Backbone:
């Protein structure tokens, strides 16, 4: 298995007027090549500091960090030519230049041959829907257009590893959809993406692996399925029936919760059932399902816990934990 | 793309950047109007303070104000993006390449600043100072103007390198201009200012530019035989080197060492 990031006990402190603040503490993680790795957490959790250490903008206070096989203390220049950093916002583009000239400028910093650069510019302007606006000054671009140009700027030198800090911020739904497709396309081409976002739906859709950071520490990490397995206290099922069940089903038996059946627009009925992860409860659930068979079960789906709920659980759990400690 | 092509290419983009910041004809028109009103205002103040001698004093220094404005406020606006702490791309190129880009940009700014100075001086000398008529001397002053350009440019770089928050950063060049007008030896001779301002004025490149410019324009002896001009040129060179060094260092300063 090839890793593009190997972090071992990574820490970073900031000294502010004599007070030392630990922004990141003992982070140990790896990121596999060709994956999308989500770095999630509330504001001030340490995500940006972690990203800035990985992209060589900040030196760690202690710990080891390898990026694309290079040591960040010794080989920062080699790393910088192979990474891209999308940070959006109002800076990072030259407002006095057209969109095309901006890309020419950034491409030239990476010493891309002129003919190759012009081809890439054409490709990315087209892919991001900026072809018609390519000769307009960037100061006249809308917020979404600037963000698209930021994306093109980040990708113009075809980096192997991309850091994307809230990339869909300011994009309209169409732009968001396009960018998500681009990210999946990049992943399919073997690129690795480190993504930070507050949009849990986006993280759920894109990320192969996720690490939750709070107060500078990784609280938990894993694939979506692993996190769901870890945080789901019960299995949730959605059963769709052709007929309304005329049965009296006991609620709250062995911790099972059966919600009131709902008739949906196609005339079918949907029942949501939560089942604790115990053998007894699973057996009782089996009995409930067999009682429902005469009402024509159209579909039985196990509903996974949404990442948003996992996030909220982690955040509230951590807050509770902190309160207990203090 | 070799280093030469790279620098040439970036200089071309700098020219576009500068042209788009404010188109040349609007730029010249705005400053021509401004310099005339500014001159009348300064002459009025100079007359109140010290009569005819002061009038010429104000006139010569005043010529440099619009050029100073171009050089360090516009430079500041452009370079603010290049001091951005997230610019990994700038860290991929060598310091030599970065310096060459800066020099390319300086030349772009110099060309623009030079024409503005020439234009305003020609207008003033022909309309307001009858008999002065030696504005062609300006062509011989290109090295002086280039140094003035570089030192003012380095001041813009210095402001950008401070990297304060956006609002303060935007106000700073304007406040600086007011301060420079006070201690720049434009309107009031620096000797007439309180001692603290006299000391501060020594650290202002514009004051040395004005002194050199004034010595060059008013003295009857050729400027290349005037040792005072050489001292001012040397000071301007030091300011330029320091300003450029600050910029080159500030590009990399965000890679902070462990706390």
Residues:
């Amino acid at each position: 298995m090839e890793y593009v990031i190997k972090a071992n006990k990574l820490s970073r402190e900031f000294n502010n007027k004599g007070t030392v603040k630990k922004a990141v503490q003992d982070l140990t993680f790896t990121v596999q090549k060709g994956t999308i790795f989500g770095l999630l957490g509330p504001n001030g959790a340490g995500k940006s500091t972690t990203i800035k250490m990985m992209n060589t903008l900040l030196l760690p206070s202690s710990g080891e960090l390898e990026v694309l096989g290079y040591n960040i203390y010794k080989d920062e220049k080699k790393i910088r030519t192979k990474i891209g950093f999308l940070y959006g916002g109002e800076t990072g583009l030259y407002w006095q230049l057209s969109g095309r000239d901006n890309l020419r400028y950034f491409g030239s910093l990476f010493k891309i041959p002129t003919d190759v650069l012009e081809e890439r510019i054409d490709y990315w302007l087209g892919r991001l829907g900026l072809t018609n606006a390519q000769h307009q000054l960037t100061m006249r671009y809308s917020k979404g257009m600037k963000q698209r140009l930021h994306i093109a700027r980040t990708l113009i030198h075809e980096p192997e590893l991309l850091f994307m800090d809230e990339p869909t911020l300011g994009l309209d739904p169409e732009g968001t959809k396009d960018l998500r497709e681009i990210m999946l396309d990049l992943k399919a081409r073997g690129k690795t993406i480190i993504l930070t976002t507050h949009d849990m739906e986006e993280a759920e859709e894109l990320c192969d692996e996720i690490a939750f950071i709070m107060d500078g520490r990784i609280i938990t990490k894993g694939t979506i399925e692993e996190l769901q397995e870890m945080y789901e206290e019960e299995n949730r099922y959605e059963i769709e029936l052709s007929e309304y069940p005329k049965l009296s089903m006991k609620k709250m038996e062995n911790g099972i919760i059966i919600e009131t059946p709902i008739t949906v627009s196609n005339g079918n009925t949907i029942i949501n059932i939560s089942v604790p992860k115990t053998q007894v409860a699973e057996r009782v659930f089996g009995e409930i399902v067999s009682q429902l068979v005469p009402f024509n079960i159209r579909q039985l789906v196990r509903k996974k816990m949404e990442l948003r709920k996992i996030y909220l659980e982690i955040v509230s759990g951590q807050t509770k934990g902190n309160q207990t400690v203090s | 793309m070799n280093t030469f092509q790279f620098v040439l290419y970036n200089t071309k983009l700098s020219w576009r950047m500068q042209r788009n910041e404010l188109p040349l004809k609007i730029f010249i028109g705005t400053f021509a109007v401004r310099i005339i009103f500014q001159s009348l205002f300064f002459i009025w103040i100079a007359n109140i303070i010290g009569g005819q001698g002061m009038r010429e004093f104000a006139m010569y220094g005043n010529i440099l104000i619009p050029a100073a404005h171009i050089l360090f406020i516009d430079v500041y606006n452009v370079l603010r993006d290049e001091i951005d702490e997230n610019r990994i791309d700038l860290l991929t190129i060598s310091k030599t390449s970065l310096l060459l880009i800066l020099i390319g940009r300086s030349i772009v700014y110099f060309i623009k600043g030079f024409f503005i100075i020439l234009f305003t001086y020609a207008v003033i000398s022909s309309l307001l100072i009858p008999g002065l008529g030696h504005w062609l001397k300006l062509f011989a002053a290109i090295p002086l103007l280039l140094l003035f350009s570089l030192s003012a440019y380095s001041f813009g770089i210095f402001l950008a390198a401070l990297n304060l928050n956006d609002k303060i950063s935007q106000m700073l060049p304007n406040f600086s201009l007011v301060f420079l007008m006070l201690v720049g030896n434009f309107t009031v001779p620096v000797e007439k200012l309180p001692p603290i301002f006299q000391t501060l004025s020594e650290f202002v490149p514009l004051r040395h530019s004005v002194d050199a410019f004034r010595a060059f324009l008013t003295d009857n002896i050729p400027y290349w035989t005037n040792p005072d001009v050489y001292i001012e040129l040397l000071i301007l060179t030091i300011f330029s080197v320091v300003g450029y060094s600050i910029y080159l260092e500030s590009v990399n300063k965000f890679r902070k060492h462990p706390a």
Observations:
- Chain B has one domain: 3-252.
- The radius of gyration of chain B is 19 Å.
- Chain B touches chain A through 30 residues (CB under 8 Å).
- Residues 3-252 of chain B form one domain.
